[in-house]
Amino acid sequence: MSKFNIAVLISGNGSNLQALIDEFKSNSYINICCVISNQKEAHGLKRADEANIDTHYIDHKRFTSREEFENELITNLEQYKPDLVVLAGFMRILSNLFVEKFLGKLINIHPSLLPKYKGLDTHRRVIEAGEKFHGVTVHFVDNTLDGGPICAQSSIRVTTDNIKDLQQEIHKVEHKLYPEVVSDIANKKISLSDGKVIRK
């Protein structure tokens, strides 16, 4: 059986990347083929190096347009022919060029129960709104901001008004949910068809 190759795009610490590494390091089917970052000092690159995963650093600032940067990103990704591209704290908004190239094979994790709280600062906004529940969404990426078809969600009760404490609780949820969804996609339990998520 050929491997199911996933490429992971990061910009920072890479804690979700680490969750994926830990989950799939002894998996004979699901393989993290490469990790790409737009930040040279991203700790996630070190995590990948330690797991003997190919890494690439592509500085978005050296390109004159988003499209030029994304073309370089695509060129690097195409070396590996990934079956799935996983955004794990990749802090760049992707254009239609990139999204269309990997449509149905591109997923993101967002720290809120979408469609609530799209964008940044979700933990602060949840606390300020007095929400009783907060959570995590994994979704296919389309041309809308945090608006693609939802693969899965997981929620927790909000028991603190401390942003950092809530963030840590949400990280725990992310680290469990993301590998589960990646595994389900790899095993064809979740797919995208005509803009809708199909579950088997």
Q: Number of helical runs?
A: 6
**Beta strand %:** 25-35%
Shape: globular
Query: CATH fold name of the largest domain, please?
Result: Rossmann fold
Order of helices and strands: EHEHEHEHEHEEHEE
How many discrete domains?
2
Rg over CA atoms, rounded to whole Å, is 16 Å
CATH class of the largest domain: Alpha Beta
Helix content: 25-40%
Spatial arrangement of strands, main beta sheet: 3-2-1-4-5-6-7
User: Segments where pLDDT lies below 50 for 5+ residues?
Assistant: none
- Overall pLDDT level: 97
Judging by the overall fold, what is the CATH architecture of the largest domain?
A: 3-Layer(aba) Sandwich
Measured distance between first and last alpha carbons: 21 Å
**Biggest sheet descriptor:** 7 strands, mixed
In total, how many beta strands? 9
Structure overview:
By secondary structure, the protein is α/β, with parallel strands linked by helices. It folds into two domains: 102 residues, Rossmann fold (3-Layer(aba) Sandwich); 85 residues, Rossmann fold. Helices cover 34% and strands 26% of the residues. It contains six helices and nine strands. It has a seven-stranded mixed sheet, with helices on both faces. A two-stranded antiparallel sheet has the order 8-9. β1, α1 and β2 form a beta-alpha-beta unit. It is globular. The mean pLDDT is 97.
